[in-house]
Specification:
Elements (H helix, E strand, L loop, with lengths): L17 E7 L5 E7 L7 E10 L2 H9 L20 E9 L11 E4 L2 E2 L5 H4 L17 E2 L11 E5 L3 E3 L6 H5 L1 H13 L9 E4 L3 H12 L5 E5 L2 H9 L4 E4 L5 H8 L5 E6 L4 H10 E9 L11 H6 L3 E4 L7 H10 L9 E6 L3 H10 L6 E5 L6 H6 L1
Parallel strand pairs: 10-11, 10-13, 11-12, 13-14, 14-15, 16-17
Antiparallel strand pairs: 1-2, 3-4, 3-8, 3-17, 4-5, 5-9, 6-7
Helix pairs in contact: 4-5, 4-10, 5-6, 7-8
This protein binds zinc ion (ZN) (2 copies).
Length: 384
Protein backbone atom coordinates (compact mmCIF):
# COMPACT_ATOMS: atom_id res chain seq x y z
CA UNK A 1 0.00 0.00 0.00
CA UNK A 2 0.86 3.63 -0.36
CA UNK A 3 1.96 5.13 2.94
CA UNK A 4 4.98 7.43 2.48
CA UNK A 5 6.44 9.15 5.53
CA UNK A 6 5.04 12.62 6.20
CA UNK A 7 2.16 12.20 3.74
CA UNK A 8 -1.43 12.32 5.00
CA UNK A 9 -3.79 9.76 3.47
CA UNK A 10 -7.36 8.73 4.27
CA UNK A 11 -9.04 5.31 4.46
CA UNK A 12 -11.74 6.78 2.19
CA UNK A 13 -9.15 7.09 -0.58
CA UNK A 14 -7.06 3.93 -0.66
CA UNK A 15 -4.09 4.51 -2.93
CA UNK A 16 -2.15 1.74 -4.65
CA UNK A 17 1.64 1.79 -4.49
CA UNK A 18 1.65 1.23 -8.25
CA UNK A 19 -0.70 3.19 -10.49
CA UNK A 20 -1.64 2.76 -14.13
CA UNK A 21 -0.08 5.39 -16.37
CA UNK A 22 0.49 6.06 -20.04
CA UNK A 23 4.18 6.43 -20.74
CA UNK A 24 5.72 7.99 -23.84
CA UNK A 25 8.09 5.53 -25.53
CA UNK A 26 9.35 6.37 -29.00
CA UNK A 27 7.57 9.09 -31.04
CA UNK A 28 3.86 8.21 -31.38
CA UNK A 29 4.29 5.26 -29.03
CA UNK A 30 2.30 5.28 -25.79
CA UNK A 31 2.53 2.36 -23.38
CA UNK A 32 -0.01 1.69 -20.62
CA UNK A 33 2.14 0.59 -17.72
CA UNK A 34 2.40 0.27 -13.98
CA UNK A 35 4.37 3.12 -12.43
CA UNK A 36 5.09 4.03 -8.82
CA UNK A 37 2.36 6.31 -7.50
CA UNK A 38 4.13 9.67 -6.98
CA UNK A 39 4.72 11.17 -3.53
CA UNK A 40 3.77 14.78 -2.77
CA UNK A 41 6.38 16.98 -1.15
CA UNK A 42 6.00 20.20 0.82
CA UNK A 43 3.11 22.36 -0.52
CA UNK A 44 2.05 19.54 -2.82
CA UNK A 45 -0.87 17.13 -3.00
CA UNK A 46 -1.55 13.85 -4.76
CA UNK A 47 -4.50 14.25 -7.13
CA UNK A 48 -6.53 11.23 -8.19
CA UNK A 49 -7.22 12.09 -11.79
CA UNK A 50 -10.89 11.82 -12.70
CA UNK A 51 -10.86 13.36 -16.18
CA UNK A 52 -8.34 14.80 -18.60
CA UNK A 53 -8.93 16.69 -21.83
CA UNK A 54 -6.73 16.27 -24.88
CA UNK A 55 -5.05 19.38 -26.24
CA UNK A 56 -3.41 19.89 -29.64
CA UNK A 57 -0.16 20.38 -27.75
CA UNK A 58 -0.44 16.83 -26.36
CA UNK A 59 -0.60 15.53 -29.93
CA UNK A 60 2.52 17.53 -30.80
CA UNK A 61 4.39 16.26 -27.76
CA UNK A 62 3.48 12.64 -28.41
CA UNK A 63 4.66 12.76 -32.01
CA UNK A 64 7.53 15.24 -31.98
CA UNK A 65 8.46 15.71 -28.33
CA UNK A 66 8.49 19.51 -28.27
CA UNK A 67 7.36 21.60 -26.41
CA UNK A 68 7.80 18.99 -23.69
CA UNK A 69 11.30 18.69 -22.28
CA UNK A 70 12.55 16.16 -19.76
CA UNK A 71 16.02 16.45 -18.21
CA UNK A 72 16.80 19.14 -20.77
CA UNK A 73 16.01 16.97 -23.80
CA UNK A 74 13.23 15.32 -25.77
CA UNK A 75 10.74 13.41 -23.60
CA UNK A 76 10.97 10.04 -25.39
CA UNK A 77 11.79 6.85 -23.49
CA UNK A 78 12.11 8.69 -20.17
CA UNK A 79 9.09 7.17 -18.44
CA UNK A 80 7.31 10.49 -19.05
CA UNK A 81 3.52 10.74 -18.76
CA UNK A 82 1.99 13.50 -20.92
CA UNK A 83 -1.43 15.18 -20.48
CA UNK A 84 -1.99 18.57 -18.87
CA UNK A 85 -5.68 19.54 -18.88
CA UNK A 86 -6.98 17.46 -16.01
CA UNK A 87 -9.11 17.57 -12.90
CA UNK A 88 -9.60 15.16 -10.06
CA UNK A 89 -9.94 14.61 -6.35
CA UNK A 90 -7.33 15.38 -3.71
CA UNK A 91 -6.24 11.94 -2.46
CA UNK A 92 -3.21 12.64 -0.23
CA UNK A 93 -1.50 15.67 1.29
CA UNK A 94 2.19 16.46 1.41
CA UNK A 95 3.85 17.46 4.71
CA UNK A 96 2.10 20.41 6.46
CA UNK A 97 -0.50 20.91 3.72
CA UNK A 98 -3.76 22.20 5.23
CA UNK A 99 -4.93 24.49 2.43
CA UNK A 100 -7.04 21.74 0.87
CA UNK A 101 -8.62 18.57 2.23
CA UNK A 102 -8.62 15.01 1.00
CA UNK A 103 -11.77 14.45 -1.05
CA UNK A 104 -12.00 17.96 -2.53
CA UNK A 105 -12.55 18.13 -6.29
CA UNK A 106 -10.01 20.32 -8.04
CA UNK A 107 -9.03 21.52 -11.49
CA UNK A 108 -5.37 22.15 -12.00
CA UNK A 109 -3.27 24.60 -13.91
CA UNK A 110 -0.16 23.39 -15.63
CA UNK A 111 2.56 25.60 -14.22
CA UNK A 112 3.95 25.80 -10.72
CA UNK A 113 6.86 28.21 -10.73
CA UNK A 114 9.98 27.68 -8.65
CA UNK A 115 8.88 30.55 -6.42
CA UNK A 116 12.43 31.83 -6.06
CA UNK A 117 13.40 33.38 -9.43
CA UNK A 118 12.74 37.02 -10.28
CA UNK A 119 9.85 36.20 -12.65
CA UNK A 120 8.13 34.06 -10.05
CA UNK A 121 8.65 36.88 -7.54
CA UNK A 122 6.80 39.16 -10.01
CA UNK A 123 3.91 36.68 -10.22
CA UNK A 124 4.95 35.54 -13.71
CA UNK A 125 5.28 31.90 -12.78
CA UNK A 126 4.44 30.62 -16.28
CA UNK A 127 7.63 32.43 -17.37
CA UNK A 128 9.67 30.95 -14.53
CA UNK A 129 13.40 31.36 -15.21
CA UNK A 130 13.91 27.88 -13.80
CA UNK A 131 11.54 26.39 -16.37
CA UNK A 132 12.21 22.68 -16.67
CA UNK A 133 14.10 22.46 -13.40
CA UNK A 134 12.05 20.23 -11.08
CA UNK A 135 15.06 20.20 -8.74
CA UNK A 136 14.37 23.94 -8.22
CA UNK A 137 10.67 23.30 -7.54
CA UNK A 138 9.40 24.19 -11.01
CA UNK A 139 6.69 21.98 -12.49
CA UNK A 140 4.86 22.11 -15.80
CA UNK A 141 2.83 18.93 -15.61
CA UNK A 142 2.60 17.20 -18.96
CA UNK A 143 5.55 19.29 -20.25
CA UNK A 144 8.52 19.00 -17.90
CA UNK A 145 7.03 16.81 -15.17
CA UNK A 146 4.55 13.94 -15.26
CA UNK A 147 1.06 14.85 -16.38
CA UNK A 148 -2.48 13.61 -16.40
CA UNK A 149 -2.72 10.51 -18.61
CA UNK A 150 -2.44 8.42 -15.46
CA UNK A 151 -4.41 7.55 -12.35
CA UNK A 152 -2.58 10.04 -10.10
CA UNK A 153 -0.43 13.15 -10.39
CA UNK A 154 1.37 15.59 -8.10
CA UNK A 155 0.21 19.19 -7.96
CA UNK A 156 1.47 22.23 -6.06
CA UNK A 157 -1.32 23.72 -3.94
CA UNK A 158 -1.03 26.99 -5.91
CA UNK A 159 -2.14 25.18 -9.06
CA UNK A 160 -5.48 24.00 -7.64
CA UNK A 161 -8.89 25.55 -8.29
CA UNK A 162 -11.88 24.11 -6.44
CA UNK A 163 -14.57 22.57 -8.61
CA UNK A 164 -18.16 23.28 -7.52
CA UNK A 165 -20.43 20.25 -7.00
CA UNK A 166 -22.65 21.44 -9.81
CA UNK A 167 -19.84 21.19 -12.37
CA UNK A 168 -19.18 17.91 -14.21
CA UNK A 169 -15.71 16.38 -14.41
CA UNK A 170 -15.60 17.00 -18.15
CA UNK A 171 -16.49 20.67 -17.82
CA UNK A 172 -13.89 21.10 -15.07
CA UNK A 173 -11.12 19.93 -17.43
CA UNK A 174 -11.94 22.89 -19.69
CA UNK A 175 -10.99 25.40 -17.01
CA UNK A 176 -7.34 25.19 -18.13
CA UNK A 177 -8.34 26.14 -21.66
CA UNK A 178 -10.59 28.94 -20.47
CA UNK A 179 -7.78 30.02 -18.13
CA UNK A 180 -5.39 30.33 -21.07
CA UNK A 181 -7.91 32.54 -22.87
CA UNK A 182 -8.38 34.54 -19.67
CA UNK A 183 -4.62 34.97 -19.31
CA UNK A 184 -4.46 36.36 -22.85
CA UNK A 185 -7.07 38.97 -21.97
CA UNK A 186 -5.31 39.64 -18.66
CA UNK A 187 -2.03 40.42 -20.41
CA UNK A 188 -3.83 42.71 -22.88
CA UNK A 189 -5.06 44.79 -19.97
CA UNK A 190 -8.05 42.86 -18.78
CA UNK A 191 -10.63 45.66 -18.78
CA UNK A 192 -12.30 44.88 -22.08
CA UNK A 193 -15.86 45.97 -21.21
CA UNK A 194 -17.21 48.06 -24.07
CA UNK A 195 -14.12 47.48 -26.19
CA UNK A 196 -13.87 45.50 -29.41
CA UNK A 197 -12.21 42.09 -29.39
CA UNK A 198 -11.46 39.95 -32.44
CA UNK A 199 -10.58 36.29 -31.96
CA UNK A 200 -8.81 34.63 -34.89
CA UNK A 201 -9.21 30.85 -35.07
CA UNK A 202 -12.09 28.83 -33.55
CA UNK A 203 -10.00 26.15 -31.85
CA UNK A 204 -10.66 25.44 -28.17
CA UNK A 205 -8.68 28.45 -26.91
CA UNK A 206 -10.22 30.75 -29.51
CA UNK A 207 -13.76 29.59 -28.78
CA UNK A 208 -13.32 30.05 -25.05
CA UNK A 209 -11.61 33.41 -25.66
CA UNK A 210 -14.86 34.48 -27.30
CA UNK A 211 -16.80 33.25 -24.26
CA UNK A 212 -14.50 34.90 -21.71
CA UNK A 213 -14.31 38.21 -23.64
CA UNK A 214 -18.09 38.30 -23.86
CA UNK A 215 -18.49 37.44 -20.17
CA UNK A 216 -16.15 40.36 -19.36
CA UNK A 217 -18.33 42.74 -21.36
CA UNK A 218 -16.33 43.17 -24.57
CA UNK A 219 -18.38 44.56 -27.44
CA UNK A 220 -18.40 43.68 -30.20
CA UNK A 221 -16.78 40.24 -30.02
CA UNK A 222 -15.86 39.02 -33.49
CA UNK A 223 -14.67 35.53 -34.40
CA UNK A 224 -12.94 34.59 -37.66
CA UNK A 225 -12.23 31.15 -39.08
CA UNK A 226 -12.89 28.76 -41.92
CA UNK A 227 -15.13 26.04 -40.50
CA UNK A 228 -18.77 27.01 -40.26
CA UNK A 229 -19.59 24.40 -37.62
CA UNK A 230 -17.02 25.79 -35.23
CA UNK A 231 -17.92 29.38 -36.06
CA UNK A 232 -21.53 28.51 -35.15
CA UNK A 233 -20.36 27.27 -31.74
CA UNK A 234 -18.53 30.60 -31.37
CA UNK A 235 -21.82 32.36 -31.97
CA UNK A 236 -23.46 30.27 -29.25
CA UNK A 237 -20.61 31.20 -26.91
CA UNK A 238 -21.24 34.89 -27.47
CA UNK A 239 -19.65 36.11 -30.71
CA UNK A 240 -21.62 39.12 -31.97
CA UNK A 241 -20.36 38.49 -35.48
CA UNK A 242 -18.64 35.53 -37.09
CA UNK A 243 -16.54 35.86 -40.25
CA UNK A 244 -15.80 32.93 -42.51
CA UNK A 245 -12.56 34.11 -44.09
CA UNK A 246 -13.21 31.94 -47.14
CA UNK A 247 -16.24 34.10 -47.91
CA UNK A 248 -15.38 37.53 -46.53
CA UNK A 249 -12.29 39.70 -46.11
CA UNK A 250 -11.77 39.58 -42.36
CA UNK A 251 -9.76 42.83 -42.17
CA UNK A 252 -12.39 44.77 -44.15
CA UNK A 253 -15.29 43.41 -42.11
CA UNK A 254 -13.57 44.14 -38.79
CA UNK A 255 -12.86 47.69 -39.92
CA UNK A 256 -16.49 48.17 -40.95
CA UNK A 257 -17.72 46.83 -37.62
CA UNK A 258 -15.43 49.16 -35.65
CA UNK A 259 -16.23 52.46 -37.32
CA UNK A 260 -13.39 52.15 -39.80
CA UNK A 261 -10.57 52.14 -37.24
CA UNK A 262 -10.02 48.47 -36.43
CA UNK A 263 -10.32 46.47 -33.23
CA UNK A 264 -8.99 47.41 -29.81
CA UNK A 265 -7.78 43.88 -29.12
CA UNK A 266 -7.03 40.89 -31.34
CA UNK A 267 -6.40 37.43 -29.92
CA UNK A 268 -4.54 35.38 -32.52
CA UNK A 269 -5.26 31.69 -31.99
CA UNK A 270 -4.33 30.28 -35.41
CA UNK A 271 -0.59 30.99 -35.69
CA UNK A 272 -0.23 31.18 -39.47
CA UNK A 273 1.49 33.87 -41.52
CA UNK A 274 -1.82 34.90 -43.10
CA UNK A 275 -3.67 35.21 -39.81
CA UNK A 276 -0.85 37.00 -38.00
CA UNK A 277 -0.81 39.61 -40.78
CA UNK A 278 -4.60 39.87 -40.59
CA UNK A 279 -4.23 40.52 -36.87
CA UNK A 280 -1.73 43.32 -37.54
CA UNK A 281 -3.99 44.96 -40.10
CA UNK A 282 -7.25 44.68 -38.17
CA UNK A 283 -5.91 46.22 -34.93
CA UNK A 284 -6.44 49.95 -34.42
CA UNK A 285 -3.74 52.50 -33.60
CA UNK A 286 -2.42 51.78 -30.14
CA UNK A 287 -4.34 48.54 -30.05
CA UNK A 288 -3.04 45.26 -28.71
CA UNK A 289 -2.52 41.82 -30.16
CA UNK A 290 -2.18 38.67 -28.10
CA UNK A 291 -0.38 35.79 -29.78
CA UNK A 292 -1.97 32.73 -28.20
CA UNK A 293 -0.96 30.11 -30.80
CA UNK A 294 2.52 28.75 -31.39
CA UNK A 295 3.47 29.42 -35.06
CA UNK A 296 5.32 26.44 -36.54
CA UNK A 297 8.24 28.38 -37.98
CA UNK A 298 9.48 31.93 -38.64
CA UNK A 299 6.81 34.15 -40.23
CA UNK A 300 7.05 37.14 -42.55
CA UNK A 301 4.98 39.91 -41.03
CA UNK A 302 4.21 43.56 -41.75
CA UNK A 303 6.20 44.89 -38.80
CA UNK A 304 6.33 48.37 -40.34
CA UNK A 305 2.55 48.67 -40.03
CA UNK A 306 2.81 47.53 -36.45
CA UNK A 307 5.48 50.07 -35.54
CA UNK A 308 3.89 52.97 -37.46
CA UNK A 309 0.62 52.36 -35.64
CA UNK A 310 2.00 51.83 -32.16
CA UNK A 311 0.46 48.38 -31.98
CA UNK A 312 1.51 46.23 -29.04
CA UNK A 313 2.11 42.49 -29.39
CA UNK A 314 2.04 40.12 -26.43
CA UNK A 315 3.25 36.54 -26.49
CA UNK A 316 1.57 34.43 -23.85
CA UNK A 317 2.43 31.04 -22.61
CA UNK A 318 0.04 29.01 -20.56
CA UNK A 319 -2.47 30.19 -18.03
CA UNK A 320 -0.55 32.56 -15.77
CA UNK A 321 -1.50 35.07 -13.09
CA UNK A 322 -4.03 32.69 -11.58
CA UNK A 323 -6.22 33.14 -14.67
CA UNK A 324 -7.48 29.60 -14.20
CA UNK A 325 -9.15 30.60 -10.94
CA UNK A 326 -10.80 33.60 -12.57
CA UNK A 327 -11.99 31.41 -15.44
CA UNK A 328 -13.33 28.95 -12.88
CA UNK A 329 -15.23 31.78 -11.17
CA UNK A 330 -16.98 32.68 -14.44
CA UNK A 331 -17.73 29.03 -15.24
CA UNK A 332 -19.00 28.31 -11.72
CA UNK A 333 -21.46 31.18 -12.18
CA UNK A 334 -22.44 29.73 -15.54
CA UNK A 335 -21.52 32.93 -17.37
CA UNK A 336 -20.80 30.73 -20.40
CA UNK A 337 -21.19 27.08 -21.24
CA UNK A 338 -17.73 25.70 -21.93
CA UNK A 339 -19.19 22.23 -22.49
CA UNK A 340 -20.22 23.38 -25.97
CA UNK A 341 -16.67 22.58 -27.07
CA UNK A 342 -16.63 19.13 -25.39
CA UNK A 343 -17.57 16.61 -28.05
CA UNK A 344 -16.33 13.12 -27.03
CA UNK A 345 -15.49 11.04 -23.95
CA UNK A 346 -13.39 7.87 -23.70
CA UNK A 347 -11.99 5.71 -20.90
CA UNK A 348 -8.38 6.20 -19.82
CA UNK A 349 -7.59 2.70 -21.12
CA UNK A 350 -8.76 3.85 -24.52
CA UNK A 351 -6.46 6.88 -24.76
CA UNK A 352 -5.13 5.95 -28.23
CA UNK A 353 -8.65 6.10 -29.67
CA UNK A 354 -9.28 9.40 -27.91
CA UNK A 355 -6.05 10.82 -29.36
CA UNK A 356 -7.05 9.66 -32.84
CA UNK A 357 -10.43 11.40 -32.51
CA UNK A 358 -8.69 14.61 -31.47
CA UNK A 359 -5.96 14.42 -34.12
CA UNK A 360 -8.11 13.43 -37.09
CA UNK A 361 -11.11 15.46 -35.87
CA UNK A 362 -13.24 12.34 -36.19
CA UNK A 363 -16.94 13.29 -36.07
CA UNK A 364 -15.92 16.97 -35.87
CA UNK A 365 -14.22 16.38 -32.53
CA UNK A 366 -13.16 19.54 -30.72
CA UNK A 367 -12.39 18.68 -27.09
CA UNK A 368 -12.01 14.99 -26.40
CA UNK A 369 -12.03 14.06 -22.72
CA UNK A 370 -10.60 10.90 -21.19
CA UNK A 371 -12.05 9.74 -17.91
CA UNK A 372 -10.47 7.48 -15.34
CA UNK A 373 -13.44 7.58 -12.99
CA UNK A 374 -15.45 4.91 -14.78
CA UNK A 375 -14.97 2.52 -17.60
CA UNK A 376 -16.45 4.16 -20.63
CA UNK A 377 -18.38 2.17 -23.15
CA UNK A 378 -19.40 2.91 -26.68
CA UNK A 379 -22.60 4.35 -25.21
CA UNK A 380 -20.57 7.07 -23.47
CA UNK A 381 -18.88 7.90 -26.70
CA UNK A 382 -22.21 8.33 -28.40
CA UNK A 383 -23.87 10.12 -25.49
CA UNK A 384 -21.47 13.01 -24.96
ZN1 LIG B 1 -3.36 22.52 -23.59
ZN1 LIG C 1 10.66 30.71 -11.00
Amino acid sequence: MYDPAGVTTSPDFPIPAQMKAWILGNPDELLFRGKATPIPGRAEVLVRIDAVAICATDLEIISSGSPASIQGGLPFNKSFTPGHEYMGTVAALGPAVDEVAIGERVSVEIHAGCGQCSRCRQGMYTSCLNYGRPDKGHRANGFTTDGGFAEYAINHINTLARVPDTMSDAEATLVVTAGTSMYGLTELGGLVAGESVVVIGPGPIGLLAVAVAKALGASPVILTGTRNKRLAIGKELGADRIINVAEENAVDVVRQLTGGIGADYVIECAGTEVTVNQAIHMTNRGGKICMAAFPHGPLTTDLAHLVKNNIYVYGIRGEGRSATRRAMALMAEKRFDATKIHTHTFALDDLPTALRYARDRVEDAIKVVVTARRTATLADVAAE
